[in-house]
């Protein structure tokens, strides 16, 4: 969601930066192609380790070596790792998010998209809060996984969480599902964000079931391990390059 018009397009980053400055006027509203409206409460994005879901806590416990926190948002995961003396770089395409991370004390940051980030190696790539959603469309997953390989040190790992949103669709009498013909995969969702009277451009986000992740990861020469499952169709997976 990058744009030359930062004020109007970096809705997420502007909201984070406002909250960091002590200006809490509104939460982020999200609207999706599933006809679901939701609220992203800003205080939750600034949570500490004890307030994080168990899946996120488990992922942070599994981090080793140097870490790239992809889609870092307000930097809560990076700050925790930094407090444990784990070298971490917080990366986000949102200018406001990175400025927020800096103000909160994150020492190493990168303001760019993951596709444009190159020529560095990490022992752990971390994608939390459905971080793999940045892929947008299932057809792009292989491209992203191949790029992730170029960022991994030998014996490196990818830790990611996602959700299987099949529960949002009604099953037919025979137990099968009928999905909208407008999408190639049922986990592809279109979103807009609204904050303080401004609305973002439409953007794509991917919710990925574990079996599909495992299949595509295997085709990209990754070993895929289901580390843990949450209470609402969410899971944590670890990928290691074969």
Features:
242 residues, Rossmann fold, single chain, 8 helices
Structural summary, described in words:
- The protein is of the alpha/beta class.
- The protein has one domain (6-241): Rossmann fold (3-Layer(aba) Sandwich).
- Helix content is 27%, strand content 29%.
- It has helices spanning 6-9, 11-20, 42-45, 54-62, 76-83, 95-104, 141-151, 210-219, and strands spanning 28-32, 37-40, 67-70, 88-92, 109-111, 122-127, 152-163, 188-195, 198-199, 203-206, 222-229, 234-241.
- The strands form 2 sheets. Strands 5-4-3-6-7-12-11 form a 7-stranded mixed β-sheet, with helices on both faces. Strands 1, 2, 8, 9 and 10 form a 5-stranded antiparallel β-sheet that branches.
- The longest helix has 11 residues, at 141-151.
- It is globular and about 55 Å long.
- The two termini are 33 Å apart.
- Residues 1-8 have low confidence and may be disordered.
- What is the third-level CATH name, the topology? Rossmann fold
Please indicate the percent range of residues in DSSP E strands (runs of 2 or more): 25-35%
The outline comes out as globular
Quickly count the domains. 1
CATH superfamily: Vaccinia Virus protein VP39
Total strands:
12
Element order: H for helix, E for strand: HHEEHHEHEHEEHEEEEHEE
Layout of strands and helices, then pairs:
Elements (H helix, E strand, L loop, with lengths): L5 H4 L1 H10 L7 E5 L4 E4 L1 H4 L8 H9 L4 E4 L5 H8 L4 E5 L2 H10 L4 E3 L10 E6 L13 H11 E12 L24 E8 L2 E2 L3 E4 L3 H10 L2 E8 L4 E8 L1
Parallel strand pairs: 3-4, 3-6, 4-5, 6-7
Antiparallel strand pairs: 1-2, 1-8, 7-12, 8-9, 8-10, 11-12
